[in-house]
Amino acid sequence: MTAAAVASLSISCAPKKSVEEKLAEYTEWNQNFMEEYRNGIVQLADDEAAAEAYADSCYQVYVNYNKEALAQNLDNAVGLEALKNIYSELDDAELAAYLEKFTAPLDEQDSIFVAGIKESVTSRKGTAEGMMFTDFEIDGVKFSDFIGKGKYVLVDFWASWCGPCRREMPNLRAVYDEFHGDKFDMLSVAVWDKPEDTVQAAKEENIVWNQIINAQQVPTDIYGIEGIPHIILFGPDGTIVKRNLRGSAIREAVAAAVAK
Q: 137-258: what fold?
């Protein structure tokens, strides 16, 4: 018998781990990972570029580990925890494929959670790139007051407490300063936030473009937004041009659009 065959036999004969053992290992890995990540970020506090590169690398490791855990445990509690950790990081096709096979036992709260994810996937299908915008109204202000009026409009769904949202502000200000005019405008829509906190943060971030305050869950439910910032570029007629823009991709999308 070859070494490979012996290895294969030893694996197949290994005792099967219980769900409890798998969950304990999964939980320990995530706890250790997050502790190592936090320590690494602290050590790189004085080097922003290195810290960003480190964070990106850790993010990929984290997502890949949880993807594998989800794929291998679609029928148990480990898969449920992995789904909770990375559902907002998966594209809709990938997420729908997992959900189609997902049979883990669910209590009432988890059933609501999974149903909510499925609803979000459905919402995003109706508001995908190439689809017409869906209107909503907050305190007498309509989304259509800004969208579909003949300009490209970059819409930033954000909140004052959201660190990544605040970190995108320099990119947004630069895009606004460069392109604002007859063909382009911007709109910030505050979600999941206290209005007074939004107003204060908007002053701190020097948001001089249009804003909708106190939108809460209304637009995020409509557009299937699971995490913020979520930045969408709308066309002059209200068609959704690009979704989920971040970093340098924001300027690239706007520059390509207004150049047409």
A: Glutaredoxin (3.40.30)
